[in-house]
Amino acid sequence: MRLIIYIVSLTSLLSACQSKKESTKNHEHHTVSSGTAEADTVKKSLPKETHAMVGDAHITIKYTAPVTKGRVIWGGLVPYNEVWVTGAHRATSFEINKAFSINGQSVPAGKYAIFTIPGEETWTFILNKNWDQHLADDYNAGEDVLRFEITPERLAENQERLLYAIENISDSEANLKISWEKIRITIPLKL
What we know:
The strands form 2 sheets. Strands 1-2-3-4-7-8-9 form a 7-stranded antiparallel beta sheet, with no helix packed on it. The chain is globular and about 40 Å long. A hairpin with a 5-residue loop joins β7 and β8. The chain has one domain. Mean pLDDT is 85; it is low at 1-28 and 32-38. The chain is mainly beta. The protein contains 1 helix and 11 strands; from the N terminus they run αβββββββββββ.
């Protein structure tokens, strides 16, 4: 009887491991929140993670996601023409295990911070070497890996909580989408 229970348990464990392995291999994008399913109804900033596979490259984005809570975001909570941590509290980190390019600029595999400078018409997207910093307190433009101008798009519906997402286009291309309130910026990535 113990042998049968052991074999059934071992079979279940192996099946779960295989399923997890296939899920990890084939996953394209998922976001992880800390806390329970009710976490998104909480009206405070929450730690979030986005994971994605683009071909055989793994991307991890860790950020703190604020909510609008009826506030004026652009030109209010987030001032125009100032470096923004593009999240809340700590700098948003972007980690990738393969070399890639953004806007035609090559970037080695590694971990970086994402910053933006929101403007009324255009934004500046920034990838910075110093991913471990509080807000933009220690931001130093001399540590920028790249920066370029981008035009945001208006969303029809409000995105209450800041959201980072990876949209796969092919095994070598994807779009990083950052959405909050009624604004989205899309950054094309290539391997």
